[in-house]
Amino acid sequence: MLAALLVASLTGCMQNGLQAPYTAFVLAPASVSVAWDDSYNGLNDGIGAIILGDFLVYDAENDEPLQNVNLEILSNSAGACLVPSEALQLVDYPTMPEGSSLADCVDENGNFDNTVYEWCAWHYDTLSGNYYQFGSDFADSGGFCPGYHTGTTDRYGLLRVYVYLDALATQGEESDFQNAQIVGTTGYDSDFFEIGPGDIE
Questions:
Q1: Residue 47 contacts by C-beta under 8 Å, 6 or more apart in sequence?
Q2: Segment (H or E) for 190
Q3: Among 73, 75, 78, 101, which has the minimal tally of Cβ within 10 Å of its Cβ?
Q4: How do residues 80-117 score in pLDDT, each as one tens digit?
């Protein structure tokens, strides 16, 4: 249903990483196009897209990748969450207890709520068709959507980013979706990729 360009590498964590030198450059992964419509665009509705991308940090003086350097990742969209890899757990298609319905996963205001019943705590990834559950050490309830992440590059100079696209901002008309921008920065240099509907240059 959705098309996306996914790139690969290992996850980095901010553990005694080094400050990148001023000669370091950041290279973002390619921008991602998704088929998106209003039915996907509710915040905290349990429907979204999980997108992976790798930021590369390299030394411009010798074109060598820089390992174990700190990289900050920021999202400019309230609906594009930066999710730790350890929080994503692939689960089987969720089954409801007898006599239950999806209406039990909705609060009195009509918002999706996965905090009352454990079987509500899944998210459908429209890219892969899989269901995921956010782990207990990731507080995704109450609309929590982190827009900041820090990590260190691996031995190939790469830091993988996991973005859970829950909703895209709109401007003017309801279906006029705006691209979400994911930025990686060393402090000296930065680069970004975008996630949005249709073709992104």
A1: 39, 40, 123, 124, 126
A2: strand 190-197
A3: 101
A4: 989 877 777 777 766 777 887 767 777 777 666 666 77
Cα torsion at 36, 41, 45, 46 (round to 10°)? 20
- The model carries a pTM of 0.72
Q: Which of the residues in the chain have pLDDT under 70?
A: 1-15, 93-94, 102, 110-115, 118-119, 121-122, 134-144, 173-174, 199-201
Largest CA distance in the chain: 65
Tokens of 127: 């890219």
What per-residue confidence (pLDDT) applies to 199?
Answer: 57
Six-digit token string for 98? 């007898």
Q: DSSP state, 26?
A: E
First to last CA, the chain: 21
In one-letter notation, the amino acid at residue 142 is G
Tokens of 4: 């996306």
Round to whole Å and give the CA distance between 192 and 182. 5
Sheet holding 180-185, edge to edge: 32-34, 190-197, 180-185, 70-75, 148-152
Alpha-carbon span 168 to 170, nearest angstrom: 6
Distance separating alpha carbons of residues 43 and 48, to the nearest angstrom: 9
Residue 50, class by beta-carbon neighbours within 10 Å (0-12 exposed, 13-18 middle, 19+ buried)? buried
Q: Is 17 left (phi over 0), alpha (psi -120 to 50) or beta?
A: beta
